[in-house]
Amino acid sequence: MRIQSPSLVELHSFLAVARTGSFRRAAQELCVTQAAVSRAVARLEADMGQEVFTRTPGGVALTALGAELQRMTARHVRGLEAAGLRLRRPSERLRLRLSVVTSLGNLWLMPRLEDFRRQHPGVAIEFRQYRHDEDFTRDDVDLWIDVKRSLRQQWPRQIAARYLVGREILEVCTPAVASGIASAQDILRQPLLYHSAHPGNWEIWAGQAGLDLAGHPLDCGFDLVINMVDAARAGMGVAVVQECMVRDDLRAGRLVAPLGVRASTGRGYYVCRRRAQAAHPASELFSQWLQEQALAPISAAVRQ
After folding, report:
1. Does an H or E element contain 44, and which?
2. What is the spatial distance between Cα 128 and Cα 49, in angstroms, rounded to a whole number?
């Protein structure tokens, strides 16, 4: 019987381009050359007799055929990868060494990590110490989740960095504090909690909310987001914080966003790896899982 399906090389290349919207980023993700990805996609399109992407100056977009192919194959390709890992002998269990910025690790990653472990029991995860001044030269880390600290920050040339979560901030407080907030002006009657490294987040949020903070002091500063969130949970005031950090609190009703005003800082958290790193299937699986978690919808107590 003649084989009708595309090869796994072609499917991996196609799905990586579909995920990233770029042949260059797909090549970085797969640890191959951009030319190799282009050739694989070209073979796939020749076999299909139709294009799976439309090429534009800004990148690529899926055609109708491409979208249908992605829908029909993505889950199965991930399943094949998972099967390969699951059937390895215990002595060959893959090890993935992570360094994760502290607050994101505690507030966002840890509550979700068991889902990855359940899906991919063949991957053993080891956490390495997070360093605020990371230079990405360590050989004891396979993958970093680090924060972009300013709009002007450039990642080192040897690092491929992909945005994950954390650009958007919004105001949060307990339901009791929120009971006294009906408008942006009411925010000024509450203590304003802030991240001491980014006090300007309040100005960014106020600009989006149409609120003038001129001359109004901030109240209590925290050097870690997790401590600021704890203070908000304790009813100490209103915090502006990355939405990803409080997803579970919003879902559970411990915190609410009384106005639901979202603003972008343009920074956020990125998944980082060395460009020269050899193909690492566990890293690939974990990166894909992270992106799925980042895109998961929020069911939050946000007033619209």
Report:
1. helix 34-48
2. 48
Residue 297: both structure tokens together: 């919808």
Give which of 140, 147, 163 is closest to 103, Cα–Cα. Answer: 147
- CB atoms under 10 Å from CB of 22, counted, come to 17
Distance CA(131)–CA(146), nearest Å, equals 9
Q: Find the angle CA(294)-CA(297)-CA(303) to the nearest 5 degrees.
A: 120
pTM of the model: 0.69
* Beta-bridge partners for 112: none
Task: Tell me the residue length of the chain.
Answer: 304
Per-residue model confidence as pLDDT tens digits over 220-253: 999 999 999 999 999 999 999 999 999 999 999 9
- Tens digits of per-residue pLDDT, 15-73? 888 888 888 878 777 767 888 888 888 888 888 888 888 887 777 888 988 888 888 88
Tell me which amino acid residue 155 is: W
Which residues on adjacent β-strands are paired with residue 100? 145
Asked if 147 and 101 touch (Cβ cutoff 8 Å), the reply is yes
Orientation angle between helical segments 8-20 and 34-48, nearest 10 degrees: 110
Both structure tokens of 54: 């439309």
3-state secondary structure of 127: strand
